[in-house]
Design brief:
Elements lengths: L1 E4 L13 E3 L5 E6 L2 E6 L5 E5 L6 E7 L3 E6 L3 E5 L5 E6 L6 E4 L6 E4 L3 E6 L2 E8 L4 E6 L5 E6 L3 E6 L4 E6 L5 E6 L9 E6 L3 E6 L4 E7 L4 E6 L6 E5 L3 E5 L5 E7 L4 E6 L5 E6 L3 E6 L6 E4 L2 E6 L3 E6 L4 E6 L6 E5 L2 E6 L2 E7 L9 E7 L7 E4 L3 E6 L2 E6 L4 E6 L4 E8 L6 E6 L3 E6 L6 E5 L4 E6 L5 E6 L4 E5 L5 E5 L4 E4 L6 E6 L2 E6 L5 E4 L3 E6 L2 E6 L2 E6 L3 H9 L3 H8 L5 H13 L3 H11 L2 H15 L5 H11 L3 H10 L3 H10 L3 H11 L4 H13 L3 H11 L2 H11 L2 H10 L5 H13 L3 H11 L2 H10 L3 H10 L5 H13 L3 H11 L2 H17 L3 H18 L11 H31 L7 H17 L8 H14 L3 H12 ...
């Protein structure tokens, strides 16, 4: 590239001991005496001269950041930055022989005759280590973990980056003048190249093991350097040359020859430029150009790799085979199953191991141990042919020279064009423009054509009738071999190749354009870089610098041009090279349209389109049978090609209108089918029915139904729309149908009901005048107003309404109303069943208040079963069972009503119920559970726990002790156990008495009763049951009395309620209070006398059940003396339930009775509940406070 002569001021050449490139390769730095010269790498211009050393500069090394380090005979090491300024200097005791930098950490290694030093930018001190012999060279590994030292005593020392010696390689006594680690990143192990003055090159691994054998150099090496990629290395020395070697130790070729010893050579980063510094004071730069060496035959391509290997590639399958020659490969030639490789001292002929196009296994057939220099090399089946300027020489595989041709001009191009084995032909392109044909078995060349310019490229077509030539003017000319006429010519061509499978197809390239030419058609162009070297089928082989690429050329353009001229056979042949499926279909269809059945059939066979093949078969059959109606044939072709309107036109022209109708029908093009039918015979009914059937088969129900409607088959449309749930469409049909279409309307109504579209169903029933079904729809929709509206106009339908309305009322907690409608419907047992279920659910869900209400309501229903005019003794078994259920339900209603507050006391954190009331409720529930049974959902533990807690707090220690003793016999919740154990112990410290305030007064005999009696909630003296308030369960000042014989209930009521002037402080049956005047007269005194004279029970509490109380009897006069405010009457409509009379014995205590359930309450309790909730706390009936 360029050369620089370095001299001092006196004109004396200065030896170049060292030169380097900066890391980016922009500058070249060289030593020249005491100076350092900096050159621009590309132009060679001197940029700067540095003078920092006092004696000769011996060595250089590049540093990261494009600086460098220098060492000289002045024993100094200087660090220079990228601005060529010295930033640091440190010294050794001897001349600096070598400097190098760690490529990873930036550590600088400086070597002398006695030691080496390691310097890093972050540490000022230089760590120096003594060595046993003079260091001549050094090199770091790529990863920066180790460095190697070449010593004067012939040893190589491999050390870690801290300086610790890992391996010592002893190579004899010859000085090791240069070492270099391979920079190739793909190596598994680091490889060290070592050259010494025993004139040997060796390679070692980092563990000291030698790789391969020593290579003889024949001179004393002074420098060794790798290419940056590690692909090659250069060595220079005493022979005044620089040699190129492979990294495996194969000598390739000398790069240069200088006038003095070569002290240093370096390769420029990212370039193939080699800088050489020699003893004669010259700096020379050389570019290493590695010419491509390759050969191609059809799709088998051989090329040189790494200068010593041959790779054979099957371009179609991308299979590759590598042949290691272990020597410099100079020439390559491929022909059929032969491969010739020329090495420096021999030619090796390989052959395929098997005669198979896809086989890639080669073996050596022959070796020619001759150094034959040539310009071009080709191989045939039995010979090697060498081209030496104007001479051709043919050698057999055993090395014998068989024939020689001497020509009039230099050979520019040679190509083997094939032929029988041993009789192959060659095409020669000469510099004088001659094109010759030479047969290897003939000594006489044959002239084909003569051009006026030198030949650059030639090729022959498949049939050997056309010759393509490219001259120095880059013009491609095609000749007819037989007539020597020019068929055509194209400019801007640099290479040309005929298709090896298609006779009339060629390609040529030039100026970055690829041209594909077929016959006489214009060339098809596309962008492509490189030279065309082969063309096989639809694949073009292009060589772009060193890379062979395959370009797939679509044959669509060529096929289209043949089709334009209706040359379908040529179009088919072109398509076989490779076109898309769409192109095949276009060829098949166009050939079919032109009735070229042969090409069309072959194209459809490739597409596997059996439908069109069947169509072609039909046309062929018609032709065989003598059919000559081309319109009919073309119509069928157009139909199969999806050109339906064209097919219909051709069918009509051929007189086959029905075929056109059938075609549109099969294609579901109903509009065109009906239009065509209307134009001919006007019959469209069958077409529409077929359309509807097809739509139904395709599950397009809406469309099918619409078609049936169009035909008028509403029943079929309903059958489709109904199951699918298209109620809106069904309603449209209903509105279209006449009232007399009863069957269809009923079917629509049923589908409306099935899909819960009640409004449409009602509208349908109205159209049918079907009141019963219409009423049922209103019932199902719970539109009771509309239902009763029908019932008002048609009373005979009311019974159809009552029962479902009763169910609806019961589900909405309107039980009283529900009972009325159950009764109206005559379904007492249904009412009872519903109430039973509600009662059980309430108990299970611990809604005891609701359970009480449901049982109360249930008791009334059971009582409704019992006749009103029969005594209990006159009832039959069913009636008696109902009567017993009535009494049981009344009891359960009272028990659950009391238990609800007990349960809430235990479960809730606090309660608003008074303690005295809770104690009364708990006692009432416990007495019932003890003497009768424990109802479902009631816990005795809860009841006794409540009794124990509250009675203890109220001073009822005896009752609390009783409750705790019973609790200890039961299984209680674990969390209560400790508390109950403590209460049981502490209660023993209390007196076994109950507080007087807890005593219960009997208002019949005026005796005082203990707080609790387990037998019954009655007086222990007279056995009279206490009358309890259904709110607080306190004993009320009421005494029950009976009537004298002969006084009926009607008479008694008349006697009591006749005198309106009698008043007393009481609350009437509507809950309102009256003036609290004292009761005077003979009636009260008579009652008191009767109560005072009643016999006492001598055994208190022992016969409460066996000897029931005898109630006071009132005469006619006594009843007449009573006022209605002193007496409470529990009326009854049933004879089996007697009317009961109660007398209020304390005029200052006000009592109220619910007119619905006949339960008693204190006036304050009653007023509070009614004012708060507006209903009775027991039966929940609406109540009010009236004056």
């Amino acid at each position: 590239m360029y050369l620089v002569q370095v001299q001092d001021t006196a004109g004396t050449p200065q030896p170049i001991y060292s030169l380097i490139y900066t890391y980016d390769g922009e500058y070249l730095i060289a030593t020249a005496g005491v100076e350092i010269l900096i050159y621009h790498s590309t132009t060679g211009e001197l940029q700067k001269t540095l003078k920092g050393h006092k004696d000769a500069v011996i060595c250089l090394c590049p540093l990261k950041g494009n600086g460098f380090a220098s060492g000289g005979a002045d024993k100094q090491v200087i660090i220079w930055n990228n601005k060529w300024e010295g930033t640091l200097k440190y010294s050794h005791n001897d001349t600096i022989q070598s400097v190098s930098q760690n490529p990873v950490t930036g550590m600088v290694l400086s070597c002398t005759a006695s030691d080496y030093g390691l310097w890093t930018p972050d540490i000022k001190a230089v760590n120096k280590t003594k060595v046993p012999s003079k260091i001549l060279c050094s090199s770091w590994t790529l990863d920066g973990q180790h460095f190697a030292l070449g010593l004067y005593n012939g040893n190589v020392s491999i050390r870690s980056r801290t300086g610790e010696e890992k391996v010592r390689i002893e190579r004899g006594s010859s000085p090791v003048w240069s070492v270099a680690w391979s920079p190739a990143p793909e190596l598994d192990l680091d490889i060290l190249a070592v050259t010494d003055w025993s004139q040997k090159l060796s390679f070692f691994q980092i563990n000291g093991c030698q790789v391969g054998k020593d290579r003889q150099l024949g001179y004393d090496p002074c420098t060794v350097s790798y290419f940056p990629t590690g692909d090659y290395l250069v060595i220079g020395g005493s022979d005044k040359k620089v040699h190129l070697w492979t990294p495996n130790g194969v000598r390739i070729a000398p790069i240069c020859d200088r006038q003095g010893w070569v002290w240093s050579c370096k390769v420029r980063p990212n370039h193939n430029h080699v800088a050489v510094g020699s003893q004669d004071g010259t700096i020379s730069i050389y570019e290493v150009v590695l010419n491509i060496v390759h050969g191609l035959y059809h799709d088998r391509y051989a090329f040189r790799h790494n200068l010593t290997d041959v790779v054979v590639q099957h371009l179609s399958t991308d299979q590759k085979a590598r042949i290691k020659c272990c020597d410099y490969v100079k020439k390559i030639s491929v022909y059929k199953d032969r491969l010739a490789v020329q090495l420096p001292d021999r030619i090796i002929i390989y052959e395929l191991f098997h005669d198979d196009a896809g086989n890639m296994h080669y073996r050596i057939k022959e070796k020619l141990q001759k150094n034959l220099e040539c310009n071009l090399l080709v191989v045939t089946s039995q010979a090697i042919i060498l081209c030496l300027d104007q001479k051709l020489q043919m050698y057999s595989f055993v090395g014998e020279k068989e024939r020689e041709w001497n020509l009039d001009s230099s050979i520019r191009y040679i190509k083997v064009i094939g032929g029988p084995s041993g009789r192959e032909g060659l095409l020669l392109g000469l510099k004088d423009g001659h094109i010759l044909k030479v047969f290897v078995d003939s000594a006489f060349p044959i002239s084909i054509v003569k051009l006026h310019s030198p030949i650059c490229c030639i090729d022959l077509n498949l049939s050997r009738t056309k010759l393509a030539v490219i001259d120095d003017q880059n013009t491609c000319v095609v000749y007819d071999i037989n007539t020597k006429d020019v068929l055509f010519q194209e400019p801007n061509a640099s290479s040309v190749s005929w298709n090896t499978e298609v006779d009339d197809m060629m390609c040529f390239s030039g100026n970055g354009i690829l041209n594909v030419k077929i016959g006489n058609f214009p060339a098809h162009q596309q962008k492509m870089d490189g030279l065309v070297v082969g063309f096989k089928g639809s694949q073009i082989f292009c060589l772009n610098t060193y890379q062979m690429t395959i370009v797939d050329v679509p044959q669509t353009t060529a096929m289209d041009r043949y089709m334009e001229k209706e040359e379908f056979d040529s179009a088919y042949q072109t398509a076989c090279l490779g076109v898309s499926e769409g192109d095949w279909r276009r060829l098949a269809l166009e050939a079919l349209e032109k009735l070229n059945l042969n090409v069309s059939k072959k194209a459809f066979v490739r597409l596997r389109d059996f439908r069109f093949l069947e169509a072609i078969k039909t046309i062929e059959k018609l032709k065989i049978e003598g059919g000559k109606e081309n319109d009919l044939f073309l119509a069928q072709v157009a139909a199969f090609a999806a050109k339906y309107h064209e097919a219909a036109r051709l069918f009509k022209r051929a007189g086959h209108v029905q075929r056109a109708v059938e075609m549109f029908t099969e294609l579901n093009m109903w509009e065109y089918a009906t239009q065509l039918a209307e134009e001919t015979d006007g019959k469209t009914q069958d077409i529409l029915l077929r359309k509807a059937q097809m739509q139904e088969d395709r599950h397009d129900m809406l469309a099918a139904a619409a078609t049936y409607e169009e035909v008028g088959d509403y029943a079929k449309a309903i059958d489709i729309l109904g199951p699918a749930g298209f109620v809106d469409r069904l309603m449209e049909i209903v509105r279209k149908l006449d009232k007399q279409a009863t069957k269809e309307l009923v079917q629509c109504a049923l589908y409306f009901r099935k899909h819960n579209h009640q409004a449409y169903a009602i509208e349908t029933f109205i159209k049918l005048d079907d009141l019963v079904s219409q009423l049922q729809m209103y019932i199902d929709m719970q539109q009771w107003d509309n239902a009763f509206r029908i019932g008002d106009t048609h009373p005979e339908l009311n019974k159809q309404i009552y029962l479902p309305y009763g169910h609806w009322l019961a589900m909405n907690d309107r039980f009283e109303e529900a009972q009325k409608y159950y009764i109206k419907a005559g379904c007492i047992h249904e009412a009872i069943r519903v109430l039973k279920q509600l009662s059980q659910n309430a108990v299970l869900q611990q809604r005891f208040d609701d359970a009480s209400f449901y049982y109360w309501t249930l008791s009334k229903e059971y009582l409704e079963i019992v006749p009103t005019d029969l005594d209990e003794s006159q009832l039959n078994q069913t009636q008696r069972r109902a009567f017993m259920q009535y009494k049981s339900c009344i009891e359960l209603a009272e028990i659950y009503h009391a238990y609800k507050s007990v349960f809430r006391f235990v479960e809730d954190p606090f309660t608003f119920t008074l303690p005295e009331s809770l104690l009364n409720m708990a006692k009432h529930v416990y007495i019932f559970c003890t003497n009768k049974y424990t109802p479902t959902g009631i816990s005795k533990v809860y009841v006794l726990y409540t009794m124990a807690k509250i009675s203890r707090n109220l001073g009822g220690f005896k009752l609390a002790r009783y409750a705790l003793e019973r609790l200890m016999l039961m299984k209680v919740p674990p969390k209560w156990q400790d508390t109950l154990d403590l209460d049981t112990v502490t209660i023993r410290s209390k007196p076994v008495t109950d507080s007087d305030e807890l005593m219960v007064t009997c208002y019949q005999c005026s005796s005082m009763n203990p707080p609790f009696q387990s037998k019954a909630n009655a007086c222990i003296n007279c056995s009279e049951l206490f009358v309890l308030s259904m709110y607080s369960f306190h004993s009320l000042p009421l005494v029950e009395f009976v009537l004298d014989a002969g006084i009926s209930d009607q008479l008694a009521e008349k006697l009591i309620f006749t005198d309106l002037n009698k008043e007393n402080g009481a609350i009437n049956d509507q809950g309102r209070s009256r003036p609290n005047d004292e009761v005077k007269g003979s009636a009260q005194s008579a009652i008191e006398q009767q109560l005072a004279t009643m016999p006492l029970q001598t055994k208190r509490g022992s016969n409460l059940i066996e000897n029931p109380t005898t109630h006071p009897k009132y005469s006619r006069q006594q009843l007449q003396n009573l006022t209605k405010y002193q007496v409470f009457v529990r009326k009854s409509l049933h004879r089996c339930v007697p009317v009961r009379y109660f007398y209020r014995v304390q005029s200052d205590t006000r009592v109220a009775m619910c007119s619905s359930c006949n339960m008693f309450f204190y006036e304050d309790e009653w007023i509070s509940e009614v004012l708060s909730y507006g209903k009775c706390p027991f039966c929940r009936s609406k109540s009010s406070i009236s004056e």
